[in-house]
Amino acid sequence: MQITIRMDDITPDMDWTKFNRFKEILDKHSVKPLIGVVPDNKDPKLQIDPKREDFWDYVKTLEKDGWTIAMHGFNHLYTTREAGLFPIGGKSEFAGVSMSAQDDMIREGKRILKSHGIRTDIFMAPSHSFDKNTIKVLKKNGFSKITDGFGNMPFSRFGMTFYPLAFKKSMAIKAGKKGIETLVYHTNTMEDRDFVAFEKLLDEAQVVSFSRLFSLNPVKKGLFAAFGDALLARSKYNLGRLHKLIKHK
Predict the structure, then answer these.
(1) Is 30 in contact with 207 (CB distance < 8 Å)?
(2) Which pLDDT score is estimated for 87?
(3) pTM for the whole thing?
(4) Is there a smaller number of Cβ atoms within 10 Å at the N or the C end of the chain?
């Protein structure tokens, strides 16, 4: 099984020490990830360091070096408790919001990225939450790819190409499995042990750059398979909540 890396919550005011530590490990192994850039971050949980003044030029440098850029929502603010089509979380910036409001956010987010020289047709929803209206306005605004769903191959649905995630990290790195699965990382919240585990992963597993996925033809995923994805996502969400309850008892 090959593995690709997705990094969420890339903002001018993220924890740059942790980001740079993560990047050093990637650079050591010549792995180029997918990064989700928030066009206009207003989430106080992501506002950690002073804003990096050359942020947008730096993102363009990463892109030139082979990193893949996705638009990660708009403000990264959760305004509903809707789980959406891929219910791995219980909150959303998009799901449950009117189509016109979603259209405004997607269009403005893309405009901001474009104003800084960043052009992408890949969308990354905060908390993995989006609905059918999100997909409609994404297509209207020139997006053709979404990084979400479960599986080990790109798949097509709703006229979009989905680049799915691994259901469980330990399952993704098992020898003998075929395909490519994507592991998700949030460097802002990583601890020392997480960086150690990440470096071990790159030392031992077959980790490739995210762009490798673009050479694969997406398979068609029907309603039944999509329903299975939704059930898996909901079970992962419930297991995560149970783990937090046990941890805090």
Answers:
(1) no
(2) 78
(3) 0.88
(4) C
Looking at the DSSP assignment, which residues form a beta bridge with residue 122?
145
CA-closest candidate to residue 47, choices 11, 92, 91, 7: 11
CATH number of the structural domain spanning residue 65 = 3.20.20.370
Count structural domains, the chain. Answer: 1
Q: For the chain, how many residues are written?
A: 249
Mean pLDDT for the chain overall = 89
Domain that holds residue 132: 2-247
Integer-rounded Cα Rg, in Å, for the chain is: 17
Q: What residues contact 207, with CB distance under 8 A and at least 6 apart?
A: 2, 3, 4, 5, 29, 31, 201
Q: Going by C-beta distance under 8 Å and a sequence separation of 6 or more, which residues neighbour residue 45?
A: none
Q: For residue range 91-101, what is the model confidence (pLDDT) as tens digits?
A: 999 999 999 99
Work out whether the CA dihedral 206, 212, 217, 218 comes out positive or negative.
positive
